[in-house]
Amino acid sequence: MRLYAVNLHKAASEWPKVGLLVLCAAMAACQSTPAPAPAAPAPLNCPPVPEPVVCPQLPPPPVCPELPPPVPVPACPPPPVCPPAPKPTVGEIDGKLMIGEVEFFTVQPGNLRLEARIDTGATTSSLHAVDAENFERDGKPWVRFKSGTPGKMETLELPWTRHVRIKGEDEEFDRRPVVLIEVTVDGHRRRIEATLNDRSNYTYPLLIGRNFLRDNCIVDVSRKHVLGKK
To answer: Which domains occur in the chain, in start order?
Structure first.
């Protein structure tokens, strides 16, 4: 036991020397052992480069055949030029004059401008006449009378063609001479028979009957002075 203790003490006294030797040996090992070389980098794995796309060669465009020159079209002759249709006068329809229930007429002889009532029920026209007297000229019966409007009366002399019996308002028949006069309205002129009658009690000095209207006029009884008041 004593020997173990002596040895332990001896070992303990020598431990510093042993530690110094171990330290020196470690330092020498560090100086003599080369440092390990760095590891080489891993090679890059690049994806394979795709092969270039090769487009097929296109065929050449078709060559269109040359078209023949166009055949000239013969020029059409100009269309015939029709003359303009004549303009209808005021109130004219299909060549017939449109008139109202009352219109102004010009009466010859005398160049009388008279307002007339249009009567489709009267066979013969009638003209205002006063102071009528019969006489003969060259062996033929004539009549002298005054006609017109108040303040503008004209004395006329005309041969009479016949007499007619007209039933008056008093239910009695009146014998009236018939003369030929020329009446004009809006350029439409006709020579017609007219009875002579004192129309002082009537509104209009002239009455136009069917002997002027037939095949010549269309009457609109709902209107007056369709052709104007001049």
So the answer is: 92-220 (2.40.70.10)
